[in-house]
Amino acid sequence: MTATTLAPAAVAARMPKSIPYIVANEFAERFCYYGINAILVQYMIQFLHFGDAKAATWQALFKAGAYFFPLLGAMVSDIFLAKFRTIISFSMVYVTGCFTIAFGSGEASMVVGMFLVAFGTGGIKPCVSTNVGDQFTSANSHLIERAFSYFYLAINAGSSISIYFCPVLLADPDYGPKFAFGMPGVMMAFATLVFWLGRKKFAVVPAAMSKPGWALPAFLLVFFAVMAFAGFVFMVSGKNILLATATLLGTLSAVAALFLKTGLRDRLPPELRNWLERSLTGEGLRIVGKLAVLYLFVAFFWSLWEQSNGNSWTIQAQSALMDKRLFGFLAGVPGFEGLAAYEMLPAQVQVVNGLFILILVPIFTFGIYPLMGKFFTVTPLRKIGMGLFTVAASFLVVAWVEQRIQDGHTVSMWWQISAYVVLTASEVLVSITALEYSYKQAPLYMKSFIMSLFLLSTSVGNAFTAAVNTIMVKPLTVSSVQVGAQTWVTLEGASEFVTGQKIDFDGGDSGVQVTAVDGSQQPLAGTFLVGEVDAAGSRLRLLDKVQRQPLASSGSFDASKIEVSTYSLVGPMYFLFFSALMAAVALLFVFYAMWFKETTFVREDEPATA
To answer: Which of these, 395, 430, 392, 429, lies nearest to 572 by C-alpha position?
Structure first.
């Protein structure tokens, strides 16, 4: 049997050997990120005894970081290290963060771990998808679409599997947080190893600077100095998240202008100076300015959408009044007893978003868009506008669910799933459209930078959510706590409370222990519900938040060691606030879309030669 040697052209026309390494890396990395994100709120509430608003704030800040650091990753990759070394470097930080959360204990280690994970996943985010395209030449460019199909299949498979199984590990007392966060850490370590093993098979597009030298450390020093200044503003302003976010973005812009408009310009390495001038002066600056306004509208969309991703929607699903037996209606039907008894965990419901994406994308592409096209021209901006109104509608559904729960009525999880249908439709209209639109609006030399700015809109949206959850907290003055078979709290303004309203205890050991549903003794910490306001209007009877059972307690209350608060956005008002805000933003977007002039930048085909 004679061996056959393939011609170079035949080899070049094959799928690049690097693609399996990229796909495996993406599967494991997405498993890690979405697994951690899915269980963060549940972990903070159940194990660290955070109040609902505090847990939602920290989870939103985590995602704000995860979508802010792509700005750093894109610049490090394009200017200094190229994609391979950037991905490997940020991945090692990523792995460290995962295991810091898994094996640490308490709030401090969790915050450090969250920062490292956000830094790592953000840094590699703008590199991984463009790295797929870098592997192809004109000889095998016809295979790019197939490669991206594998790539996005890996994303959906990794995220869906982890969203389903990580909550199971967290809820199982035999495993708990160490395994629930440790498994994503193992997967991220595997992702890093696989990517390193493929190092000799990758086609690498070189960075602008072949020898960064001192420029990279200096660049990172300036970047982290800006972050430190924003952190300082955050602390001295009373932890004002919106002011800190504006300071961070404004200072970064000011530093770029300083290097471009002063004598410091001539001290920059030529490659870095050229990159800054092309992206942030002239036509580049004009494009960034126009898209920045668009991304501000999109940021509000992400503020709402991300709350379905392990945030306020998951908190809502924790209530025992949300019936999570999806097939309970089959009870009594022979052969379906096991299915009828199956009950989803609160964090698992997020998995339906990925399923609905697979269903709705072809429905919109081949059905809804062509149908709308018979009545009016379907432009990207019109799709985005419709999506903004649609996401506002999804919050009306969860507001209705919240009202029913607050009033003590049982609600099927199918109602929240129906809200996911509406929410996913808005995602198809806004996210997919805006991503493609951003790519077309950017010149070739700015596409990576513009993609990082698009991701930055998600960061700003999450920062806004965190700010709302901080601002709405209303401090209370508690004079005493009566312990016993039922727990009564005496406080100012008790008569203004309604049944089902939330009340938080945070800050330390109050001296009071409560009996959890499983019989264990826990500190009076976290979120509880108001079960009753006494006739005098001076005391509140507390209920367990999940099971809504009377709260048994013991001990002696020390008001000096704990902070007590409630929320100004009570029950459904929280979701109605976001819905109304989004509707107003969508209305403003209509006028913006009428003003915006579109320009499309695509690579021109080479002219034909005789």
So the answer is: 395
Q: How far is CA 219 from CA 222, 226, 312, in A?
A: 5, 11, 37
Pair 90, 33: CB distance under 8 Å: no
Query: Looking at residue 27, what is its pLDDT?
Result: 95
pLDDT at 13 over 80: no
Instruction: Tally the domains of the chain.
Output: 3
Residue 606: what pLDDT? 39
pTM equals 0.91
Which burial class, exposed, middle or buried, applies to 16 when counting CB atoms under 10 A from its CB (0-12, 13-18, 19+)? buried
Task: Answer for the pair 99, 182: CB distance below 8 angstroms, yes or no.
Answer: yes
pLDDT score of 285: 84
Cα(308)–Cα(420) distance, integer angstroms: 8
- CATH classification at residue 111: 1.20.1250.20
Asked if the structure places residue 268 within a domain, the reply is no
Is 353 among the domain residues? Answer: yes
Residues 434 and 485 in one domain: no
In sequence order, which residues have a C-beta less than 8 Å from that of residue 219 and are 6 or more positions away? 75, 76, 79, 80, 272
Name 610's Cβ contacts closer than 8 Å, sequence gap at least 6: none
pLDDT single digits (tens) 457-466? 999 999 999 9
Q: Please tell me whether residues 503 and 598 are part of one structural domain.
A: no
